[in-house]
Every structure is written in C-alpha cells, then in structure tokens.
Design brief:
The structure holds 2 protein chains of 2 kinds.
Chain A: H1 4-34, E1 55-56, E2 62-64, E3 70-73, H2 80-90, H3 92-95, H4 119-127, H5 150-163, E4 170-173, H6 180-190, H7 192-195, E5 202-203, E6 209-210, H8 218-227, H9 241-255, H10 271-293
Antiparallel strand pairs in A: 1-2, 3-4, 5-6
Helix pairs in contact in A: 2-5, 4-5, 4-8, 6-9, 8-9
Chain B: H1 8-14, H2 19-32, H3 35-42, E1 45-46, H4 54-75, E2 82-84, E3 96-98, H5 99-109, H6 114-141, H7 150-172, H8 177-191, H9 197-205, H10 214-244, E4 262-263, H11 264-289, H12 295-298, H13 317-325, E5 331-333, E6 336-338, H14 340-368, H15 384-403, H16 406-412, H17 417-448, E7 459-463, E8 469-473
Antiparallel strand pairs in B: 1-4, 2-3, 5-6, 7-8
The chains are: A mainly alpha, B mainly alpha.
Chain lengths: 298, 511
C-alpha cells in the first residue's frame, strides 16, 4: 500500500542525494585539505624575528620563543672583550679587524663579511674546527679538531654579535621533547638528498662534499640547519623549532648510533660495500672451497 | 624342524646383502623400474677439476634462494596500501608507509628468524649472480661453449639475465627509499624508449609512476613467473650437461672420446653434497653476521624523498655506471624528445652486450672456421685472441661497474666528483683497448714457458767427475689413464636380460 506521496518523497530524496553528494564531498574535501599533515612545513616558530609565535617586549627584543623545543640564547655580553682579543689573534688576518671581510692590506670582498651573520653562524664555524681555516684558499673548510674551545668560540661570536646584534642566536635543543620518528621522516625529506639517508655524507659536484653527520654534537646540528653553512641551504621558515628538534634527535641517536641488528653495519656504504662483501667473502670463499674440494692437478 | 633356524642372523641373511632398505628398493624397482636409469645416473662420470665446481655454487645458492624465499612470502604483504606503522622500531613509529614496507620491517624485527632469512636471501642472491658470472667466465675462457654446447651457453646466458632481472625485482619489493629510487630509474629507462616508451611504462606500471600496481606485479614476477622460468632453464641446462657429458681438460689420458672423472655415486655425490652444505653455511654466516640492505634505516619510499649516493646491487652496477658517465646527449625537436643519455647506456648498451654474448659461439665458429665437436677444453693461454677478447669485455664491464661508485671514490680519495666522472669516461674506453694487447702478450708469454700447463717434473742435477754441474729435466709423466681411474665395474646384483629379436613386423623391446 504505497501512496504516490511516499514515492515522490523517496524519489526526491534520491535526486537530492545525487545532486548534493558532490557538494558534500567537496565540502569534506575542502575541510580535509586545511588539516595540517605531519610532514607539512610551517613558518611558525622558526626562531627568527619573522616567526609569529615569538614574544617580544616593547623594545622589540625577543623574550620568548613560545616553544619547548629549542631555546635560542645570545652569548653572554661579558665575553665580548675576550672575544675581541681572540678574534684579532685568530680571525682578523682574513676577516679584518672589523670582521667586515677586509684584511689590513686587502681588498673588500675577498673574504666573507661576518657582521650581521648572527652568533649561531660564527659559533658553528669556530666550534666545528672549520675556522680558523687550515687553507683559506680551499673550496671547502673541512671539519677538524677545533683550535678554540667551546667557550672561546662563544666569546668570538659574542664579540662579532656585539658589532651588529642579529639572528639566529645559538640554538639549544631540548631533545627530551623531540619525536625521533618525525625526525626520521623530516630527515629523509630535507637532509638525505645530500647527506645520504645513512648520514654518511658524500661527494657533491665540483670538489664540494656533504660532511658526515656521525660525530656532530646536537647544538652544531641545530646551528647548521638554522644557518646553512657553505653550500647547505638555510632552513629557517620551512622548519619549525619542534621539527628542527626532531631532526637533531634523529641525527644524534639513529644516525650516530645506528641500529644494526643484522650484524656488522658494513660502514653504511650501502650496496658498494655489500657487493664487495658478497663477491669477496661469498663467491670468493666458495670458489676457494671449490678449489679445495675439486682436483687441481692441471 | 632343523632347517628352520629362527635366529636374527638368518633373518638378516634372508633379506639379502642390502638389508631391509635394499628389499624396499627392490620392491619399488619392481613397480617403477628406476634401477637401470638410476644406475646410469649413479655411474655418470664427472671430471673433477675445481673450476667445474663454480656452477654448483650458483645451483646451490639458487636452492637457498628458494627455501628462504618461501619463508619470506609467508610474512611479506605485496600491497601498496598506505598504513601507519606502529611497531617495535621507534624511528618509524607513526610514519605512513606502504604495507609492503611495513611488512618487511615487521618480518625483520617481529618474526623469529625473519631478519636472518631476509639477509640470507639477499646474500644468496649476490652469491648466485656472482657465481653465474665466474662460472660463465670459466666456460668462456676454456672454450667449453664450442660445438656441441652452444645451446647450453645460450641457456646459461639467459639464466644470467633472468637472475639479474629477478634480483632487481626482489630488491624493489620492500618499497624502501633506496629501492623506490631504483624503480623510478627503471621507469625512466622504459620511458626513454622512442615511440612506445610512454605506453610501455604505463602498461607495466598500470598508470603513471609510482601507482599502486607495481609492487603486486613485481611480487608475482619475482616469486612465481621468473623463478619458474629459471627452474625450467636450470633443468634444461642440467639435462644438456648430462646428455652431452661434461667437458674435461686435456692430459692424463683424457681424449675427445672419453670422460675421465669420479662417478656420481659415491664420490661426486659426497663432494657435491658437502659443497651444498658449505654454500648454505657460508650464506648463513653472512646472513648472521653481515648486515645487508637495512631498509629500516632507509625508511619508506615517497616520491618526494630522495637519498644521495644510491647505488643498486652489484650486478646492476654496470648499468648504473653507464648511466652515470654517459654524456648528456638528447634530441629535442618537432615536439619530440629522445633522451639518448638514458636510451643508449640503459637500453642499447646492455642489449648489445647480451646479444654479443648470445652469438659469440656462432661468431667464433665463423671466424675460426672450426666446425669440429670439442669435448676437451682449451687452456686460456693457448687461445690468446679469445682470452684477450674476454678480458676486454670483462674490463669494460668492470670499468662501468666502478663508474657506478663515482661518489664513493670521490669521497674516499678526496677528489672532485667531476674529475672522477670524467676520468671514468676516459678509463672506460682506454682500459678495454689496453686490455686486449696486454692479455694477448701475456698469453703468448705463458705459452713460451717451459712445461707450461703440464705437471712439473724435477730437474736432475748431476756432477761430472771433472766437477762440472749440469741440469737435465727428467722425462714427463706418462700420459695414460692411471689404474685407479679405470671404469668402475657395474654392480652385479642388477641382471640384464639378453636382447631378443622379434619376428618380422612385430617389434620386441625391453621393458
């Protein structure tokens, strides 16, 4: 006993569903597209004066970064005098007494101008032993045993910063708050294309190298990400402090102490070392066994 | 009653000389009649030279591949469906990945013995292809491919190609960052084929890269189709080996008409079974102690991610090297692009190399006009042109292989990557050209050596009454069959019926 009214209702509802379906889907899709996914980069909390979550006082000086991942600290101003002396001793022969890249009897532009680079940059180059450079004319300054101690490096960066206070400040990551899995994903997305996925570093074009990450302290990893030394891009706006912290955690744990449950890690060289072992120890040893088993009169 | 002696010894004697086993085998033989063929098989003679064992490494590592591979299929899920990993490996926790990758990580960490099986499978594959290559080199340099064995040479070369292809397919299955890059390169290589490339790539991948079809398709190819073809061709290979009998080195009474060696049973059987266990043992040792392809460190594949310094497994190295060092030539006109920098090194070059390998026996027959049947092997130094040609090809492939690690070389020797790359271009041309005359010369020098290729005999130094010393080489060893190598007598317990001839029109054959 079906009345035309119900039939009409049913037909109307079907038609309206078909008509509205795509609209509903579109609305749902539009909502979904606004949801931030895990790996999406953000400009928040980049630790630079541009970042939106930074709190400043009335004078425009940053008082808080609004996160618990990385604390940025300027080197103590008490170190400025010591830093000046150290700079004149170790750096001024190239970078000039004013740190503007003009040595005493040189021309402008021959060496980098350090004024306004921010304490993190100065601290990274000195703390990693790259500066003072072994050979100022080489294409790359490689990591070596630092000539200056950590405190001396801080002093140098304090003095350079005192010439023209700038950013980024020296980042101190809080690794306890980091997520190593997010760090792994971000590392694969941002870092592995030069440093390799195992963090070993490799040769890039024209005598440049991406350095190995195996023995780098956490502060320097964060500094490198924020300042972009050498050929490395400077990751400021596209990685949040939390993301940098995640990457630092991944580098200082999984890259520097890799999980090798399968036996010897073979130096992380990948298929090159594996092929060598497979051919030398696998096929080679088996061929020797064959030599032992078979006849070898001829 | 006295003739029924119910003792253990009498019962044992009643069973015959081979006991209960022998009786069971007799019963089986009454029904299946395998004794005669089995005896032929057991009496098959295998020459014992050590270089004939190289092919067995390949055969046994293939056995290991099958056993470990079956284990892996129990836990591997060939699916590109995206899942979120929540397993025991913390750095991947919460990451999105394909089910193929997640199940591979899972079988490595959560399945008892899974990682060992995976690593053994990978090492066995490296050994498999390596053993095929050195076996092939042995066959080439000793001339074992000559008439009547050209067909077996072609079957073996096909097996090498299939082994390489299946290795690549299996390497791609975990869908990790490194192997995903390999699939991407394969996709680009297919794209580079003029006219049909795009269609071919879409046909194979079921659409654009990466799609979701490629992992299940590679799985079916890797675990079913290619192994079946390999098993079939291995059977043909071994059947031809038995049918045509083994080659042997000259000397010690060996001629074109005989085969001197140990019988299948018991000598060769013992040797080869022991060798099987040693191959398994070495593979297990490598699997247990040497980490291979740690995919959990690479992470899942994602088209947006890339790792620098990615190399394929060693047997794909020559292709990777050719791709790296080939100059960037390409054709762009009239709206068409032909990327010669991909097409030539990755499609044309391997095609030419493998075709040359296939037709080599025919080429050699044509050039030497040698149509004889050969069962005795050449010493490589006695065939300087062939040996030099083989060394040339191997050095060319070796240079391409080295070129696939330009970045590792540049890093290791602290050189510019560009310098290494350009030097590899020159070396890939120069080294093979130099290899030919050098090898040719060395072969001639070896030929000129006194007693080269024969067992050394002692020199007898005599002192004459005047006090003069003179050295005379003692005579060569007699070249005849040593008595202990005489044919083993046929076991007596198998009775052969005399042949009967039938009447005209009716044929009588033995069962």
């Amino acid at each position: 006993m079906t009345s035309p009214f119900f039939k009409r209702c049913a037909a109307l509802s079907i038609v309206s569903l078909v008509a509205l379906g795509p609209v509903l889907l579109f609305v749902g899709g539009a909502q979904a597209s606004y949801k931030r996914t895990l790996y999406q980069t953000t400009r928040k909390n980049a630790g630079t004066p541009n970042s939106t979550m930074v709190k400043k006082n009335s004078d425009g000086v940053i008082i808080a970064y609004g996160n618990s991942s990385i604390t940025y600290r300027a080197p103590s101003t008490a170190l400025v005098t010591l830093g000046d002396a150290l700079f004149q001793q170790n750096c001024a022969s190239c970078h000039g007494a004013e740190a503007n890249g003009v040595p005493a009897n040189g021309t402008a532009g021959a060496f980098p101008d350090l004024v306004g680079l921010g304490p993190a940059t100065i601290n990274f180059w000195v703390d990693s032993g790259r500066m003072p450079a072994a050979n100022p004319r080489s294409i790359e300054a490689n990591r070596r045993v630092p000539r200056l101690t950590h405190d001396q490096a801080l002093a140098v960066s304090a003095w350079v910063n005192s010439l023209s206070p700038s950013f980024p400040l020296i980042p101190y990551p809080h690794l306890k708050n980091a997520n190593v899995a997010d760090g792994a994903a971000l590392f694969a997305l941002n870092c592995a294309s030069c440093h390799t996925i195992e963090g070993d570093g490799d040769a890039l074009a024209m005598s440049t190298f991406s350095p190995s990450l195996r023995k780098i302290p956490s502060i320097e990893v964060a500094e490198a990400i924020r300042t972009g030394p050498g050929n490395m891009p400077r990751f400021t706006g596209n990685l949040s402090d939390a993301q940098v912290n995640d990457i630092v955690k991944f580098v200082t744990t999984e890259i520097q102490h890799p999980n090798n449950p399968g036996g010897f890690g073979l130096g992380g060289l990948g298929p090159v070392a594996e092929g060598f072992v497979g051919l030398a120890f696998g096929v080679g040893v088996l061929a020797l066994v064959g030599f032992w088993v078979g006849e070898r009169d001829d | 009653m006295s003739d029924v002696i119910d003792t253990k010894r009498a019962k044992k004697q009643a069973l015959g000389p081979y006991g209960r086993v022998g009786q069971t085998l007799d019963e089986l033989d009454d029904r299946l009649g395998l004794a005669r063929g089995g005896r032929t098989f057991m009496d098959k003679i295998f020459p014992d030279h050590w270089s004939f064992m190289l092919g067995e490494i390949a055969l046994y590592s293939f056995l290991i591949l099958m056993v470990t591979g079956v284990f892996l299929t129990l836990y591997f899920i060939p699916s590109s469906a995206i899942v979120t990993y929540h397993g025991s490996y913390a750095p991947l926790d919460g990451q999105k990945m394909t089910q193929a990758f997640a199940s591979t990580v899972n079988l490595s960490f959560a399945v008892r013995g899974g990682l060992l099986m995976r690593q053994m499978h990978h090492w066995a594959c490296d050994i498999f292809v390596g053993a095929i290559v050195i076996h092939m080199a042995r066959v080439f340099f000793t001339g074992a491919f000559r008439k009547p064995r050209e067909l077996n040479w072609i079957v073996g070369s096909t097996l090498l190609i299939l082994a390489i292809v299946n290795g690549f397919l299996g390497y791609s299955l975990p869908d990790d960052l490194v192997s995903g890059t390999g699939i991407r390169i394969a996709y680009s290589i297919i794209l580079s084929v003029p006219l049909v490339g795009t269609y071919l790539a879409f046909f194979i991948f079921g659409g654009n890269f990466p799609g979701t079809a490629i992992i299940p398709r590679f799985f079916i190819l890797h675990c079913l189709i290619v192994p079946l073809i390999i098993i079939g061709l291995v059977s043909v290979h071994l059947f031809l080996l038995v049918r045509q009998k083994h080659t042997q080195f000259p000397g010690n009474g060996r001629t074109e008409k005989n085969v001197v060696g140990s019988p299948m049973f018991p000598v060769f059987m013992a040797k080869t079974t022991g060798f099987l266990f040693i191959v398994g043992g070495i593979t297990a040792l490598l699997g247990a102690f040497a980490q291979v392809n740690p995919i959990w460190q690479f992470g899942p594949y994602d088209a947006a991610r890339i790792s620098y310094a990615v190399q394929p497994d060693w047997y794909m190295g020559f292709l990777d090297g050719a791709l790296r060092i080939w100059p960037s030539w390409s054709f762009h006109s009239w709206g068409y692009t032909i990327p010669f920098e991909v097409l030539i090194p990755a499609v044309v070059l391997p095609g030419l190399i493998f075709n040359l390998v296939f037709v080599w026996p025919m080429l050699e027959r044509k050039f030497t006009k040698d149509n004889e049947i050969h069962h005795l092997l050449d010493r490589p130094s006695n065939r300087p042109k062939r040996t030099a040609a083989g060394v040339t090809m191997l050095s060319f492939l070796g240079m391409l292989f080295i070129a696939s690690s330009t970045d590792v070389l540049a890093k290791f020797f602290n050189l510019s990557l560009n310098t290494v790359l350009v030097s590899m271009r020159y070396l890939t041309v120069i080294v093979p050209i130099l290899a030919y005359p050098i090898t040719y010369r060395i072969c001639h020098e070896i030929q000129a050596l006194h007693g080269g290729g024969r067992r050394k005999t002692p020199n007898v130094v005599t002192r004459s009454s005047e006090g003069e010393y003179s050295a005379t080489p003692s005579p060569r060893y007699v070249d005849d069959v040593p008595s202990h190598l005489e044919a083993t007598p046929v076991p007596t317990y198998i009775h052969e019926d005399p042949e009967e001839s039938g009447d005209g029109g009716v044929r009588v054959v033995d069962r």
